[in-house]
Design goal:
single chain; 115 residues; seven-stranded mixed sheet; four-stranded antiparallel sheet
Length: 115
């Protein structure tokens, strides 16, 4: 089992920045991909960004050039730097961690961007 603790959400004005963090604990030795998803009210959960243990990244088109995902393998922590935030980025952001045998989700952290 992997436990995830997220932090860094909040309220920010459009154009501002936030940095999300997600620390994994427990059975972390076989973690492969770490990432962030988000779910806005009335919408399905969608991928925001992922990063492999080797550092390869993948982004949703809507956040390319504005968001940057990174990870510290020694700390089993994944980060999401969000710049130039827009009202449409408002959502609950969920950390996601994949192992060979399981997928774990964080509890979610609210990001609200006021226009």
């Amino acid at each position: 089992q992997v436990q995830l603790v997220e932090s860094g959400g909040g309220l920010v004005q459009a154009g501002g920045s936030l940095r999300l963090s997600c620390a994994a604990s427990g059975s972390t030795s076989s973690i492969t991909v770490m990432g962030w998803y988000r779910q806005a009210p009335g919408k399905q959960r969608e991928l925001v960004a992922t990063i492999t243990s080797g550092g390869s990244t993948n982004y949703a088109d809507s956040v390319k050039g504005r968001f940057t995902i990174s990870r510290d393998n020694a700390k089993n922590t994944v980060y999401l730097q969000m710049n130039s935030l827009k009202a449409e980025d408002t959502a609950v952001y969920y950390c996601n961690v994949k192992r060979v045998i399981s997928v774990s989700w964080g509890q979610g952290t609210q990001v609200t961007v006021s226009s």
